[in-house]
Every structure is written in C-alpha cells, then in structure tokens.
Design brief:
Length: 343
C-alpha cells in the first residue's frame, strides 16, 4: 500500500470514530469542519500532491476524492440516524392525560352588584329606564339644582371630596334627577344606580366610596301612595314577600314631604331579637319623598301640572342585611372565598 493510501485509511478510521461519537447535529458539524472543511485535514493532504512526481499526481488526486466521497456518505448517514433518534426521544415522552389539572377559578357576581341588578330589574319590569351619569359633578347638579344654594347648611351634611371650587365627587346619585329632567319632558320614570363618595372614616358601617340607587317618577297625578307602593314592592323583591316598610318623617331640601325609609330586618323578621338591626327590628335603607316644587320649576316643569317622587337607597346597606354580613369592609376586601360564598 502506498504511503498516501495508508494515510487516507488512517484518516478515515479516525473520522468514522469521531462521527460515530457525535451526539447531535452540532458535534457532527464540528467533525465535518475538522476533516473536510476549508482548513481541515483533507486539505492539508491535498496540498501534499504538489510535491509528488508528476505521473503520480492524477492517481493521488483520485484516491483523495474517493476518500472524501466515502466520508461525506458516512456523514449523511450519521446525520439521518441522529435526526430519527431525536424524533424517537420526543415520542418517548408520554403525557399522562389522567393527571389532575389545575382547576380554573371562575368569578362570581359581587353582592353589591347583585343588589343593584335586582333593584334595576324590578324597576325595569315596571317600565322604568336605567340611566347612568358622571361621578364628578359640578355643584350645580349636586346642590343648587336640588334646592341647596351655596350657603345652605345642608351642604355640610354631605361631607364631599371637592376637586376645585365648583367640582366634586358626587356624595349622592340625586344629580341624576336633574340631568334626566333637563333632557326629557315628563312623564319621567328612571332608576340611576352608581358610585358615590363621602369623607367618612371607614368602619364596619361606612366606606368613603359606596353605591346608591336613585329612583325618580314624575308625571301628572303622582302622589305619596305611589312611592309607598313601589318601595314596598322593591323590598319584597330584594328580601322576601313578608317584608314591611315604614316611612319616618325626615328632611331633604329637594323633597317635601321627606321620609327615611326602613324595612323589617330580614334576619329577625322584625321581631328585634338580633344584633344586625340593633334590636330595633328595622333596617334603614335611605331617603325618599315628593320632589320639591322648586326642583321641578328649575328644570322647567310646572309643579301645578306634574308631581313626582324620588328616593335614594344605599346599595351596601341593602347588601349587608340581605346577605347577613356584619362588616361593610368585607365587600371591598376582594376575598374570592367570601364573595363566592354569598353568590
Ligand atoms: N340623596 C339623598 C341622600 O343621599 C337621598 C334621597 C334621594 C332623599 C332622593 C330623597 C329623595 O341622603
């Protein structure tokens, strides 16, 4: 065997050992570069052809080319083998479809939201429209148009968050009475739920952000009896068919006469033997009354022709007794276990 043939045989031996040891595409490529690359071992051997006698050169070139062909064939074969073993490894990873999955948690309707939705649905069944309005109001809508001029002491009763001299976060939903009456001619029948804000210290009974449900009915011939009937129906829808409703004389500048509205404590059934109603048997829901003639006049209605009633109830108050919760802060704790339990 010529010296060149022996060299090539040894080279192929080492090459096939290296290619056989390659564990992946990248290893295999390193082997290719080391042997067959531009500066690889085969190139070094090829350079040696120049120093051979002229008549030996063609045969030497052919031997080298044959060796390169064989090495490339081996490389292709190894590459194919590596690829299929990778696919097999992937297929070998079994997925256990019986393994318990992480349960997806589903939200629930917030109790305050449910009170609002149920109250609105009740009024909608009676032909009322649901209207929504801004939480930032000019004092005109919040006070002046509700018969509370600038120096009126009733303004003090609404501990408001003021944004500047005339803008405030609404402390009640009553501005929606004015906004609705300014836009429409009577008859008017609306319910306006929404967020309200007061500078109250947070405790078991108070939040500085809470919800009210406002109602307004204005038409010819409306009287206090209509108000009593609708609010009694509302309480029976929210709490149960045996609810009684009581009206205590009160004062609001925008209603005359005015009342504070209570319903029988749903926990003790009005017997007054529980802690929730403080032993009184009654739960306070909010204010109500006949719309003041000044309010009607200011929006261009004739109080000699149309009359109306309005009410504003606290949604959290209703939810507290409806779901027998002892602390209003529970409603804003965002504790899914607590909220789901009430849903
Ligand atoms: N806006 C009053 C309050 O927040 C409640 C109310 C509304 C009273 C409508 C009478 C009529 O205290």
């Amino acid at each position: 065997m010529s010296e060149l043939a022996a060299m090539l045989a040894a080279l192929r031996e080492r090459f096939s050992a290296a290619a056989g040891a390659a564990k992946g595409e990248r290893d295999l490529d390193e082997v290719r570069v080391a042997y067959l690359g531009r500066n690889g071992e085969v190139t070094t051997i090829r350079r040696g052809i120049g120093s051979l006698p002229v008549d030996e050169r063609p045969s030497a070139g052919k031997q080298i080319n044959d060796a390169v062909d064989a090495m490339e064939a081996l490389l292709a074969q190894r590459r194919g083998a590596l690829e299929s073993s990778e696919v097999e490894a992937e297929l070998a990873q079994r997925i256990d479809v019986t393994f318990p999955a992480i349960p997806a948690s589903v939200g629930s309707i917030h109790p305050v939201r449910r009170v609002i939705e149920d109250a609105c649905a009740y009024f909608e069944r009676h032909g009322f429209a649901v209207v929504l309005g801004p939480e930032v109001e000019p004092d005109f809508y919040n006070f002046d148009a509700l018969n509370i001029p600038s120096e009126h002491p009733a303004r003090e009763g609404f501990d408001s968050f003021w944004i500047d001299d005339t803008l405030l976060l609404r402390p009640h939903t009553s501005p929606m009475q004015i906004r609705t009456m300014q836009l429409h001619r009577p008859p008017i029948a609306i319910v306006a739920p929404g967020k309200c804000y007061r500078r109250d210290a947070v405790d078991a009974r108070h939040l500085f952000q809470f919800h009210q449900i406002e109602g307004l009915l204005v038409a010819e011939g409306i009287h206090f009896g209509h108000l009593k009937g609708m609010l009694t129906g509302l309480c029976r829808t929210l709490f149960g068919v045996h609810q009684r409703v009581r009206f205590r004389p009160s004062f609001f500048p925008f209603t005359e006469p005015s009342a504070e509205v209570d319903t029988t404590c749903p926990k003790c059934g009005g017997t007054g033997v529980c802690g929730m109603c403080g032993g009184s048997g009654w739960i306070e829901l909010g204010g109500a009354g006949m719309v003041h003639p000044n309010v009607l006049r200011d929006v261009g209605y004739d109080p000699e022709v149309v009359t109306g009633w309005a009410f504003g109830f606290g949604a959290e108050r209703i939810a507290l007794s409806r779901y027998e919760v002892d602390d209003v802060r529970r409603f804003i704790d965002s504790d899914p276990d607590f909220l789901e339990q009430l849903a």
